[in-house]
């Protein structure tokens, strides 16, 4: 187990270093001189030079990289080139918003994906199964932007059950927080639910036809116990999809954040890209990669628990 | 003088156009909160909740943009000079002013008894420190190009020495270039972290979330308290027009920067709708002397291009009919604008081709033009029209910051440029001064234009309008630009809130948002 954790930790650190390094140099190559974007085009050459000096981009690129890296390993991602506030403060403010909707969306995907997947796996060809097939095609085809707008129109503007836009901090009101993240989470989760359900349903059908399952039934085990055995063996594919979804939603929540006006990392990413705010972009990249590494690590642990053979790989 | 609201104008107009084209403002009109929008009927509204479109650029007035920063900065800073509803400079912290006979010295008397939030007194010394800071500012500095020096004459009097007569200085100061900040905060560079002014509201940092919502509480004893009716103001920088409109419908906003595509729904919800010209849209001839592309130096070629474009069609298809098709860039609701000239380049492709042939370009010519995603809404119309004229355009794609940087190096480019509410400011901004969007004024190369400009700049205020009209006529005749239309900015507010738009401000400062 120690070797398993050590290997994952080392590969995670390598991944983090490679992605952060790549992002640093690609961002600098793409943005070039950030001062026109930060100061506007009316800034004089002297003013641009002063800002270049202030943010340190007048130094050799390798010096800048070492400076950034040596601080980043201590958890200090520097200051925003636009607001001159610590990047960490921006992330601390934005990350909980995005995590709220992504975690909630993942939970919804897991719960409803399992319920629907098992129900369809138990009754292949049933009405529910055919609805799942149809829904998986339709929900994947529908743009998230459109789904979000429909949800707002029906449940916020039409029925008045939710606020149309905005985020409420749980510290201010837990009820308000749940209300503010429900529609965005549903908008994110709809596609994921059918994907998890589809994976689970297919895995369920495959395992259900295995010899050992027939043996279990022949030995007179209850339907519920057989289903638990089948579910445990059918779940790895669905768990992998769920983990991938979490990572994907973390980066892909921007559209939903825009429609629901949620101050998450998606908006911050967009604004920082437009402004050429490289320290914030790098902070966002590192945090996202950390999540990828952690989620993959947790996935490996869960898969190892579900299927002990995985631990030996 | 440049105003960095130009980029904001461009973004706002382009996004509105793109949204209208995409038809993606699919919100269904509703009565659940939509009509009242936070208590708009009956009870007096105490909480102004405004959707501003863009985030505040900087709390430092020297780095702030005029475009959408006005409402934020007007909450926490007092200006030396303000503007009235007609964009005429009026006293604020400068209680009165006077120009010398030669118009090269501006003496300002200052209001006394005003203190900044950090306890420092506002006086002549503070005003001088602020003007020097603004003159040195990356975004504000262009407003003070002609200010050679500023000195304190006594505790409540300052004197600005001008290197050249500048009839638009007070206008630009009122537009958003004279916000007074605490000199101590300027000195210590503290304005990057937050505002330190003397304005009518206190910034509630604890209740605010940067880039998401900004909360302000009204001061009890501000010297201009009567101008600001709302005890609580919250500003939301909502860029997504659909989200903003949904928030308005859901009652989370009671005033917003709007997309005119939603006007029918706004009327249905019984909201107030206010519009005003804000930007001109068309083709900027950066090379009107023909240095890069000889053809563009020919008046007939530029006129041919003006005849070829279907301005009204483009305004309808791309601009959602929110504006006025015109070939002039002095505001259509101003004194210089001449409606009778709008038919001068009435769409006529046959005439356009004939003019090209007369100029010796019957087969057209080739030209490179920059393109950025924000302009793509207008690209099909431009492609089709240039194509019909035989003008072969090679579009060079680039990101928006690069567009502003590189467009001036191209012989012509598509333009969405913020307009001024002051006629002399329009002259300096769009004609005589070099800007990224007017890189080669080339006034000297056109003797008749030069003569008129000289006369206007030396004339008394009473004569200036007539001379500007003559200049406007001449510039239209020369096809100085190919203006297609003047795009409006539109604002919705619930019953109980009235917005007075001001040409020159992409979003009005708080003094222009009143109960009513």
Which structural class should the secondary elements of chain B be placed in? alpha+beta
Which sheet architecture does the biggest sheet of chain A show? none
Number of DSSP-assigned strands of chain B: 21
Shape of chain B: globular
Distance between the termini of chain B: 35 Å
| CATH class call of the largest domain in chain A | Mainly Alpha
Query: Any idea what the CATH architecture of the domain at 277-488 in chain B is?
Result: Roll
Helical residue percent band of chain B: 25-40%
Could you state the oligomeric state of the chains shown?
Answer: heterodimer
**Topology-level CATH name of the largest domain in chain A:** MetI-like fold
Q: Helicity level of chain A, as a percent range? A: over 70%
Quickly give the CATH architecture of the largest domain in chain A.
Answer: Orthogonal Bundle
Order of helices and strands of chain A: HHHHHHHHHHHHH
GO biological process, one term (chain B): peptide transport
Pfam family, one (chain B): SBP_bac_5
GO molecular function, one term (chain B): peptide transmembrane transporter activity
Organism (chain B): Actinokineospora auranticolor
């Amino acid at each position: 187990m120690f070797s398993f954790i050590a290997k994952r930790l080392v590969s995670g650190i390598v991944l983090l270093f490679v992605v952060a390094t790549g992002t640093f140099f690609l961002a600098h190559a793409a943005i070039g001189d950030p001062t026109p974007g930060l100061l506007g085009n009316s800034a004089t050459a002297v003013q641009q030079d002063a800002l270049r000096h202030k943010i340190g981009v007048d130094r050799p690129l390798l010096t800048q990289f070492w400076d950034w890296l040596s601080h980043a390993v201590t958890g200090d991602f520097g200051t925003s080139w636009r607001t001159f506030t610590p990047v960490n403060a921006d992330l601390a403010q934005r990350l909980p918003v995005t995590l709220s909707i992504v975690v909630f969306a993942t939970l919804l995907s897991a719960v409803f994906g399992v319920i629907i997947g098992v129900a369809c796996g138990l009754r292949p060809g049933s009405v529910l199964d055919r609805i799942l097939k149809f829904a998986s095609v339709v929900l994947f085809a529908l743009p998230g932007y459109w789904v979000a707008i429909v949800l707002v129109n029906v449940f916020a503007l039409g029925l008045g059950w939710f606020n149309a836009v905005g985020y409420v901090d749980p510290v201010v009101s837990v009820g308000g927080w749940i209300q503010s993240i429900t529609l965005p989470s549903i908008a994110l989760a709809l596609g994921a639910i059918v994907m998890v359900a589809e994976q689970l349903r297919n895995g369920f059908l495959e395992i259900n036809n295995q010899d050992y399952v027939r043996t279990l039934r022949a030995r007179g085990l209850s339907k519920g116990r057989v289903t638990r055995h089948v579910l445990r063996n059918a779940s790895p594919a669905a768990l992998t999809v769920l983990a991938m979804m979490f990572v994907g939603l973390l980066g892909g929540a921007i559209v939903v954040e825009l429609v629901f006006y949620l101050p998450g990392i998606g908006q911050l990413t967009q604004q920082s890209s437009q402004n050429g705010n490289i320290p914030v972009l790098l902070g966002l990249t590192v945090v996202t990669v950390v999540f990828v590494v952690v989620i993959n690590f947790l996935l490996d642990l869960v898969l190892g628990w579900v299927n002990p053979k995985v631990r030996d790989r | 003088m440049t105003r960095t609201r130009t980029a904001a104008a461009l973004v706002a107009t382009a996004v509105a156009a793109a949204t209208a084209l995409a038809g993606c403002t699919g919100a269904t009109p509703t009565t659940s909160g939509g009509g009242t929008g936070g208590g708009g009927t009956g009870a007096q509204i105490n909480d102004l909740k405004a959707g501003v479109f863009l985030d505040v650029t900087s709390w430092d007035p020297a780095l702030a943009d005029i475009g959408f920063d006005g409402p934020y900065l007007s909450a926490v800073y007092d200006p030396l000079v303000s503007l009235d509803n007609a964009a005429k400079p009026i006293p604020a912290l400068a209680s009165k002013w006077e120009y010398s006979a030669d118009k090269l010295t501006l003496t300002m008397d200052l209001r006394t008894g005003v203190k900044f939030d950090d306890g420092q007194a506002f006086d002549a010394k503070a005003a001088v420190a602020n003007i020097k800071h603004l003159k040195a500012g990356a975004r504000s500095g262009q407003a003070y190009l002609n200010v050679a020096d500023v000195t304190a004459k006594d505790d409540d009097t300052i004197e600005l020495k001008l290197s050249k007569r500048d009839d638009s200085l007070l206008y630009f100061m009122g537009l958003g270039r004279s916000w007074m900040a605490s000199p101590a905060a300027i000195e210590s560079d503290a304005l990057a972290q937050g505002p330190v002014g003397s304005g009518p509201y206190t910034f509630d940092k604890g209740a605010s979330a940067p880039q998401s919502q900004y909360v302000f509480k009204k001061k009890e004893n501000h010297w201009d308290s009567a101008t600001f009716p709302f005890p609580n103001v919250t500003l939301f920088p909502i860029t997504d027009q659909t989200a903003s409109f949904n928030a308005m419908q859901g009652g989370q906003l009671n005033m917003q920067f709007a997309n005119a595509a939603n006007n029918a729904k706004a009327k249905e919800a019984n909201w107030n709708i206010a519009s005003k010209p804000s930007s001109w849209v068309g083709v900027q001839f950066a090379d009107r002397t023909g240095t890069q592309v000889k053809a563009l130096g020919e008046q007939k070629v530029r006129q041919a291009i003006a005849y070829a474009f279907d301005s009204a069609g483009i305004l309808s298809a791309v601009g959602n009919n929110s504006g006025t098709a015109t070939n002039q860039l002095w505001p259509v609701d101003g004194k210089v604008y001449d409606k009778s000239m709008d038919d001068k380049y009435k769409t006529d492709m046959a005439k356009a081709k004939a003019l090209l042939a007369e100029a010796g370009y019957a087969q057209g010519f080739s030209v490179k033009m920059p393109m950025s995603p924000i302009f793509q809404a207008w690209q099909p119309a431009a492609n089709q029209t240039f194509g019909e004229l035989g003008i072969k355009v090679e579009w060079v794609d680039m990101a928006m910051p690069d567009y502003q940087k590189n467009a001036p190096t191209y012989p012509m480019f598509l333009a969405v440029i913020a307009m001024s509410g002051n006629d002399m400011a329009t002259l300096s901004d769009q004609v005589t001064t070099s800007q990224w969007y007017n890189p080669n004024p080339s006034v000297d190369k056109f003797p008749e234009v030069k003569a008129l400009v000289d006369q206007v700049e030396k004339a008394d205020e009473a004569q200036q309008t007539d001379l500007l009209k003559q200049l406007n006529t001449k510039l239209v005749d020369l096809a100085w630009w190919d203006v297609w239309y003047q795009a409006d900015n539109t604002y919705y507010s619930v019953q109980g809130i009235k917005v007075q738009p001001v040409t020159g401000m992409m979003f009005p400062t708080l003094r222009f948002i009143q109960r009513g």
